């Protein structure tokens, strides 16, 4: 049986996904699709292929090796454009030698884009909402972060 899909375009120009009418989970699928479209990674143009598929947490012995560098991490002042607030974080160069190889992009020789759990495990401390979106390739110890301008963290329930 061939099902006809009819994607529609509303007046705002947003494409709506086709919904097969015979699937009872169609509404659930739409809710999931909606969550994906609102994902911070998509709204902030972060390439998921440039990070680990899931956060790779540090082992206790790995974390201990990095503890000596935490006080030497430098945080820039914040700066912004009309959409985002930015800052860069400068890791001590010797710290890069102690970070596990799974955090690195072997093709570029720089850190991958890190999940929040990963950069926090390295000892980087920032308020909520920051996403690691780029590495300054000439200086791989400099990590670039951004978050939406006027970011408000979600309310705790």
Automatic annotation (TrEMBL):
InterPro entries: Cyclin-dep_kinase_reg-sub, Cyclin-dep_kinase_reg-sub_sf
GO biological process: cell division
SUPFAM superfamilies: Cell cycle regulatory proteins
Keyword field: Cell cycle, Cell division
Region of interest (Disordered), residue spans: 1-20
Compositional bias (Polar residues): 1-14
Coiled-coil intervals, chain numbering: none
Entry GO CC: cyclin-dependent protein kinase holoenzyme complex
Single GO MF annotation: cyclin-dependent protein serine/threonine kinase regulator activity
PROSITE patterns xrefs: CKS_1, CKS_2
Xref: PANTHER family: CYCLIN-DEPENDENT KINASES REGULATORY SUBUNIT/60S RIBOSOME SUBUNIT BIOGENESIS PROTEIN NIP7
Family: Belongs to the CKS family.
Record's function text: Binds to the catalytic subunit of the cyclin dependent kinases and is essential for their biological function.
Protein name per its UniProtKB record: Cyclin-dependent kinases regulatory subunit
Organism: Penicillium salamii
Taxonomic path: Eukaryota, Fungi, Dikarya, Ascomycota, Pezizomycotina
């Amino acid at each position: 049986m061939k099902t006809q899909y009819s994607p529609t375009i509303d007046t705002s120009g947003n494409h709506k996904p086709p919904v097969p009418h015979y699937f009872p989970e169609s509404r659930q699928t739409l809710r999931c699709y909606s969550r994906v479209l609102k994902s911070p990674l998509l709204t902030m143009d972060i390439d998921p292929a440039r990070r680990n598929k899931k956060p790779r947490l540090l082992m206790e012995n790995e974390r201990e090796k990095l503890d000596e560098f935490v006080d030497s991490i430098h945080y820039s002042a914040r700066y912004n454009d009309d959409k985002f607030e930015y800052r860069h974080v400068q890791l001590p160069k010797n710290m890069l030698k102690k970070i596990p190889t799974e955090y690195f992009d072997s093709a570029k020789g720089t850190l991958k884009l890190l999940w929040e759990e990963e950069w926090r495990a390295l000892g980087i401390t920032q308020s909520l909402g920051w996403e690691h979106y780029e590495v300054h390739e000439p200086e791989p110890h400099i990590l670039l972060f951004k978050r939406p301008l006027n970011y408000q963290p979600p309310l705790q329930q």
